[in-house]
Amino acid sequence: MKEIVIISGKGGTGKTSITASLAVLGGEDVVVADCDVDAADMHILLQPQNLKSEDFYSGELAVIDQDICTQCGQCFDVCRFDAIEVTDGIHKVDELSCEGCGYCARVCPVEAITNIPLNVGKWHISKTRFNQSMVHAKLGIGADNSGKLVAQVKNAAKEIATQNNSKYILVDGSPGVGCPVVSSLSGAHFVVLVTEPTVSGLHDLKRVYELVNKFHIPAGCIINKADLNMAIVDEIIDFLKEENIVHLANMPYDEDFTRAMTDCKTIVELEGSVLKEKMINIWSDIEQIIK
């Protein structure tokens, strides 16, 4: 079983559309894991049928029992996150500001404050319309600990892949270099970097590859919308050569890309499209590399 992670240094590069297309090409050999939990949207293209859902708890939230609280204000004095609000002399916890550190509970002289597990989202096991297992999640509004939710999604995907003897786990990671991306990269066998020929695209490609390189994971790169700025494409290719990153393909700008998204389809479902042939070749190359 091989784990392939698709990430990008910035949003809007076409990462999720490309990941969904690779998933379709992989067929039932693939277990899909949408680890972009902050803004999950691969379900729009793969249209999974939900089989199981579970709440995800991570971190804690302080709760004040008003029947016990004497409104002494000691919790207000020690909270470094300004999570204790006072309204008409009543102390309350601002749920979005509370970090669950527990300091307020420790100093409360009447033990009116307790910490409860915090529900930060849901995760799901589904079947895509291509009869593939898919694990995906949605982080709650303003919720923290997205890296832990990513880990839950990946662990569930690994269990399913082991049970089904699947060849691949295909992971759609978050853009950027934050905690969710680090969690997505853990245990990966190959990383696909999706970029675009812009100044910010090149800058963020270098930044995210620095992270990938720290994990010593082999990587390939797809340059999307490559024909829009050939000068920067040349710079990107030079960078790929310097870092020994496999140049998987240049994807041309094509309105079929947008048309497929509008129709809630993947690129490879468009018959006669140049993009479809590109994606078939990319998947073939990835399979050869990870073997």
Features:
291 residues, alpha/beta, Rossmann fold, Alpha-Beta Plaits, two-stranded antiparallel sheet, 11 strands, elongated
Give a written overview of the molecule.
- The chain has 291 residues and is an alpha/beta fold.
- It folds into 2 domains: 2-47 and 128-290, Rossmann fold (3-Layer(aba) Sandwich); 58-119, Alpha-Beta Plaits.
- It contains 10 helices and 11 strands.
- The chain has helices at 15-26, 43-46, 74-78, 103-107, 146-164, 179-185, 199-214, 230-242, 255-262, 274-290; strands spanning 2-7, 30-34, 49-64, 84-87, 90-93, 113-127, 133-139, 168-172, 190-195, 219-224, 246-251.
- A 9-stranded mixed beta sheet has the order 3-6-7-2-8-1-9-10-11, sandwiched between helices.
- Helix 1 (15-26) crosses helix 10.
- The chain is elongated and about 70 Å long.
CATH level 4 superfamily of the largest domain: P-loop containing nucleotide triphosphate hydrolases
Low-confidence stretches: none
Indicate the mean pLDDT: 94
The major β-sheet equals: 9 strands, mixed
Shape: elongated
Q: How many structurally independent domains? A: 2
N-to-C CA distance: 10 Å
Strand content: 25-35%
Q: In the CATH hierarchy, what is the class of the largest domain?
A: Alpha Beta
Q: Supply the CATH architecture of the largest domain.
A: 3-Layer(aba) Sandwich
Helix tally equals 10
C-alpha-based Rg, rounded: 23 Å
Order of SSEs = EHEHEHEEHEEHEHEHEHEHH
Total strand segments: 11
- Taking strands numbered 1, 2, ... along the chain, how are they ordered across the largest sheet? 3-6-7-2-8-1-9-10-11
Q: Structural class of the secondary elements?
A: alpha/beta
